[in-house]
Amino acid sequence: xxxxxxxxxxxxxxxxxxxxxxxxxxxxxxxxxxxxxxxxxxxxxxxxxxxxxxxxxxxxxxxxxxxxxxxxxxxxxxxxxxxxxxxxxxxxxxxxxxxxxxxxxxxxxxxxxxxxxxxxxxxxxxxxxxxxxxxxxxxxxxxxxxxxxxxxxxxxxxxxxxxxxxxxxxxxxxxxxxxxxxxxxxxxxxxxxxxxxxxxxxxxxxxxxxxxxxxxxxxxxxxxxxxxxxxxxxxxxxxxxxxxxxxxxxxxxxxxxxxxxxxxxxxxxxxxxxxxxxxxxxxxxxxxxxxxxxxxxxxxxxxxxxxxxxxxxxxxxxxxxxxxxxxxxxxxxxxxxxxxxxxxxxxxxxxxxxxxxxxxxxxxxxxxxxxxxxxxxxxxxxxxxxxxxxxxxxxxxxxxxxxxxxxxxxxxxxxxxxxxxxxxxxxxx
Amino acid sequence: xxxxxxxxxxxxxxxxxxxxxxxxxxxxxxxxxxxxxxxxxxxxxxxxxxxxxxxxxxxxxxxxxxxxxxxxxxxxxxxxxxxxxxxxxxxxxxxxxxxxxxxxxxxxxxxxxxxxxxxxxxxxxxxxxxxxxxxxxxxxxxxxxxxxxxxxxxxxxxxxxxxxxxxxxxxxxxxxxxxxxxxxxxxxxxxxxxxxxxxxxxxxxxxxxxxxxxxxxxxxxxxxxxxxxxxxxxxxxxxxxxxxxxxxxxxxxxxxxxxxxxxxxxxxxxxxxxxxxxx
Lengths: 429, 279
Hints:
By secondary structure, chain A is of the alpha/beta class. Chain A is about 60% helix and about 15% strand. Chain A folds into 3 domains: about 5-155, Glutamyl-tRNA reductase, N-terminal domain (Beta Polymerase, domain 2); about 165-310, Rossmann fold, CATH 3.40.50; about 340-429, no CATH class. In chain A, the strands form 2 sheets. In chain A, strands 7-6-5-8-9-10 form a 6-stranded parallel sheet. In chain A, helix 5 crosses helix 13 (about 300-365), helix 6 runs antiparallel to helix 7 and helix 8 (about 165-180) crosses helix 13. The longest helix of chain A is centred in the last third of the chain and has 67 residues, at about 300-365. Chain B has one domain. Chain B contains 10 helices and no strands. Chain B has helices spanning about 1-25, 30-55, 65-85, 90-110, 125-160, 165-170, 170-205, 215-235, 240-265, 270-275. Chain B is globular. In chain B, about 45% of the residues are buried. The chains are: A alpha/beta (about 425), B mainly alpha (about 280). The interface of A and B includes residues 271 and 297 of A.
């Protein structure tokens, strides 16, 4: 019997250093997929790799062997020892794997629940699998259902409406001010995890350029290198304000880095282009009065937390709805999987009947030479429809029993009743 | 026939308005799509209504306040339908359509006044004068609506109070560019409308400018829009200040249209258009 297995690690099971090992090389998914294809025990396979997760999804007849093979393949690719690797992974089988992939596609398993990128990444992974012809009947169906689930979750729940992390909330706000972030200039002052995450999110939105300022220029160069950005002197901030559209400030400075006169003086030269200042620092880097200036929007950490607080409660309710949708679709898929098990029996039943019909027809027509072409056609049609009608009820019966526990008994009876297995044996000889 | 066409247009516009309101509350795209189509259908009927009236009267059907309100609504919907092709701003319909529906309702409640068609009305200049002015007005209505939407959205972002409109309204930059774009396209129409008006006056009355209150107020309106356009293009005004001025300019425009026509005007007044003292 074919089993669906899913092995992987995500932000919950593995630290970032480990995830990075598998995600850093852009060609990894291709190599991984090729490696999976070479494994004889794997029938269909798909490999997903994003900055927050690395997952293999495959079908196999022999789950134990396949799991060991895939784990060793992944640890080899990442250059991680087998033990270190296996303590950080999760393994889902059958219906759990289905549920997992549905949840991942709907962004319920993401670090920021509801973030929209993951669906695109999964689609890409699936496109790769179809291109490499590693996906088959089961994965095709599974992935299409996963896309369907994700679509339902997005349109029927408000899960992706609201941002729930500070950095993501900042990006959402930026979009409400600028709409299109491509071509915008971002100035990152200082460093820090949250500020860098915000910068990372903005880069993902396709901003034009990122500049980094720091009290220590050496540090500025380091951070800039990390982002492929350009470093600027700390004293240049005033001049940089003329060009920047978004400023992220996160320094340890006890006094204001961006003062009211500094911003006010730049407005006219900026031709009143909107300026969005995100002040993540505590104590604050930006004089609060700056927000009173026209076309300037200052958000400090409390403001951003206030935004996500509202969103968080809303999202929790929406997540419950989303889980319900996932469960509903898992049940539907499970039903389909079960019918898959009766398919071979139905197929051989049909083949057998067709074979009998063909042989008998040939025999009967051979002796009679005086039938016209149209008469032959009528006889052919007649026999075909009789044969079809006779096996119709047994087929319906088997399909109906597909998701019942008694399924195997009925399959067994059907095979014996129609003598399906001995036919195969005869053919085999 | 004419009233039937108008009633069909009014009915469709009202249905579309209802749809647009449902859309902004429920955020259902299907409702939006149908509202848009129904509004467009209403616009077609409205257009047919004007064509029918034009042939029936033999002059541009803009001589009564009733007709003028109706024509204004038509221009607004037309401007919206065209603007939609560029910006695809779904929520704009929820603001524009009630405005147009309101004007059409006013138009439908005003009594039908029989006007005598004087020979000087049978001039192409009249049609061009009134037509371009109203197309300009319709486009400026977009400037106005976008400015209101901008102020609502800007207030929410600035004050960090996120109400129900926050998610439903587009970004500030989008609204500002709708504002700028419609201003840039509305202004030439208003200008051409005023110039052709002067030419028409010269042909019909023998003088370009007669210091009629409506003429004066039109000039004030024009100056407002000229100032706004200048500040935007040359000085780099945008956002809140530009939005406030756009609203002020539109209020002056409405005053010129309604106030000056009803109470102040001499020969431009709809009261006088049908009588001997008028044109």
